Amino acid sequence: MPGTTQPISNDPLDDELLENLSLLSEVLAHVQQAHIESPEPKQLMYGAIRGMLRTLDPYSQFFDPENYADFRTESRGAYGGLGMAIGIRQDRLTVVSPFKGTPAYDAGVQSGDIINQIEDESTATMTVDEAVERLRGEPGTQVAITLLREGENEPLDVILTRDVIRFQSVESKVLKEDIAYIRINQFRDTTAADVDQAFETFNRQELRGLILDVRSNPGGLLRSAVDIASDFLDVGQLVVYTKGKSPREDLVAHAGQKQKHYPLIVLVNSGSASGSEIVAAAIKDHGRGLVLGAKTFGKASVQKVVPLSSGAAVKLTVAHYYSPGGVDIHKIGITPDVEVPWFSQSENKILSKLRRHKKVKSFIEENGDDILAKLAAARHASSENSKAATLLKKYRRLMDSLSKEELVISRVGLNLAIARETENDLDEYEYDPQILAAIQQLKVLELFRTKLK
User: Fold this and answer.
1) pTM of the predicted structure, to 2 decimals
2) Is the pLDDT at 453 greater than 90, yes or no?
C-alpha cells in the first residue's frame, strides 16, 4: 500500500556491489569537502539514486516525497498539457502519438517525431517522466520544443500552448457497407463499459463486420486492455503474459458480457503501444481477426511503484509483456498480417497544412457539404453528363491551385483533407485509406466464408 515500506531481500550484497558502494561514499566525501558549493546530503543522495536508475532503462524513476505525493494525487481525467504520449525509441525521446484535437495534434506533431529539445534543454539524458514534467503546466502557458523528423533535413521548432487535455476513450460508428467501427483512443477505467454500450447499439442492426481501431493508442490500464481482449476471445484464452525475475504471470480472457462474434479487423500503426499492442497481439495470435496497418511502437514493459521510507518511492521496470505466441512486445512490436502504409512523410506534411485551408473550405462551401458523395457519383457518371464533368473540372482546378502552392497531394489525400473539413462526421472515417482497406478485407473474408458454406 502507498506510504508503507516494502520488504526487500535479506540476501547479502555481493563483493563487487559493496566495493562500488565504498566508491560512492568516497566520492560523496570529496564533494562535501572540496566542491565550491555545499549541497545538502539528501539532495546528493537523491541525485545519485536518479543517476543509478537512468542506467537501467528510460522508465525506471525515483520520486522524492513531494513528487511522489503529486504522482499519487495526479488527476487522470484532465490536465494542462500538449496532448501527446511520449516514450523512448532507440535511446531517443520519441512521440508515440498525438491525440486528436489537442495542441500537439493541431500543430502537426507526428508519431515517430524525436523530441530533441524542450525549452532549449537537450533531452538526451531525460527520462520519460522528467520530460512529461517539463511539458505539462498551466493551461494557456507556452512551451517550445525542437523536433527531428524523418525526411526533414532541418530540426523543426514548434511553440505549443498548453491546454486542458480531456480524453474520449471510445468512439463508435456504423460506416458504409454496414460495417461497425470502434476506435479506442486510450485504455481507461470506463473503456470496457463504453465498448459494451457500442455493442448494444451494433447488435440491434444487421452488420457485416467490425473494425477495431487502436491506431495512435499509447496504452493505459492493463486491466482495461484485458477486458477489451476478452470481448473477442474465448474464456480462458491467453491474452498476455509477463516475464521477469518473478515467476511468469498469465493473464487470460475472462467471462464478461458476451459480444457478437463479428468478422474482425484490427487497425494499428507506429503510434499503437502498450495496451493496444497487447490487444492486437492476442487477436492476431489466436486467429480471431486480421491485424492491418503498420508495425507498432514496441513499448510493453511492466513498472512497479515501491514506496520507500520518508515518503519517497521508486518505480522499477520488473518485467516485459509477451504475446500468446511468445513475442517480446517491448523489443519487437507487433507486425500486422496485412501491411497498409499510411501517407508518406511529405504527404503527411501537406495534410497538416491543408487543415482549415481556405481553398479547401471554399470548395466545400461552393459545392455543398456532400461534395465527396457527389464526386464519387460524378466519377461513375456517363461521359455525356455535363454536370458531373463540370464538378470533376472544379476538383482538378482545386488540385492544380494547391499544386501552385507546392501542396502536391494524391486524390486519396485530397479526399481525406476535404473529409476532415466537412460537417459530416462520418466522412473522415470513410475516406481514411486504412479504414477503406479494412472494409475491403472484411468483404474478402465475407466472400471466403460464403464459398465455404
Assistant:
1) 0.81
2) no
